[in-house]
Amino acid sequence: MPEVFYKDPAGYELLSYDYNGFLVPPFPNVHENLEKLPDMAIRNDDVFLLGYMKAGCHWMWEISGMLLKGSAEYSLQDKTAAMLERAPQASLDQLPSPRVLNSHLHLHHLPREIFTKKPKMVFMTRNPRDIAVSSYHHLFQMAELYHYDGDWNGYFHLITEGKVNYGNWFQYMLQWEKDIKDHPELPILILRYEDVKKDPIGIIAKLAEFLELPRNDQLFQDIADKCSFSKMKAAKPAYTSQFRSPSASLFRKGVVGDWKNWFTVSQHEIFQTECENFKKQSTLFNIMDDASF
Fold first, then answer.
1. 19 found inside a domain
2. Which of 24, 35, 37, 259 could be disulfide-bonded to 129 (CB atoms 3.0-4.6 Å)?
3. Domain containing 216: what range?
């Protein structure tokens, strides 16, 4: 799998790997993991958590795990232990059931058995502007992995060009829309990051119903409390050895609308044009109202 170094206008490089034309993070053993993935055996009670990077998948992974365990206790592991493109298949096989397997890949990259076993699948969406800002901080902090030393303005150029891990957000989402429409037999629940922030208990109840779990209002309240951003950030490991700054975390702000602190007027205009074009092409993801954009 070839390395790809894309340069921003200032000359700073961002490292990705090219997986048959699709850019993926330079995780250790990612080539072997992805080559084995289509033939991976899945279990009947597996849950797949999917979506573009920084769409709230860490958050929803914790929530989903608590629901499946019936207990508002944090997982002792990070979601990367169950991440299809990062964790070796042998490690995934050792995870106890029910597993919440997560990935930012496309549907055609996933194990073929999803089309026969039809596991429950949860797809996370989020305002792409907030995704852009959050992903910049994520990649910049993890310098040993991505080797990126550029600023926000340079990264904005890369992400709008689709020269980042998992490619251009708009193209990514349109491909997922096509896949979901082409496979109506697959049980896929679409959740918005913004809705989870606004009504966590209601979304947790909706997710539990989708997973065919018994209604338990007290559990839903306990999970919403434990999975509040501040409590998760305090409780989960900081992985400071992987970040530039000892104070950095996978959980940065967790707010809606932080993009307004970063986008210039011209950047907003560029993104607004992309958003309008996207909304003309998309029917499935137009569940995102104008305020979300």
1. no
2. 259
3. 3-9+42-280
Number of domains in the chain: 1
Relative orientation angle of helices 265-281 and 169-182, to the nearest 10 degrees = 20
Q: 127-146 burial string, b = 16+ CB within 10 Å, else e?
A: bbbbbbbbbbbbbbbbeeeb
Q: Of 126, 135, 122, give the one whose Cα is nearest residue 60.
A: 122
- The pTM for the full model equals 0.93
Q: Please indicate, yes or no, if residue 240 is contained in any of the structural domains.
A: yes
For 45-89, the pLDDT digits (tens) are 999 999 999 999 989 999 999 999 999 998 888 889 999 999 999
Of the candidates 58, 104, 138, 268, the residue annotated as catalytic is 104
In tens, the pLDDT along 255-286 reads 888 999 999 999 999 999 999 999 899 988 86
Token pair, residue 125, equals 């969406």
Rounded-to-integer distance, Cα 84 and Cα 37, Å: 7
Q: What is the domain-level CATH number for residue 111?
A: 3.40.50.300
Predicted confidence (pLDDT) at residue 237 exceeds the cutoff of 70: no
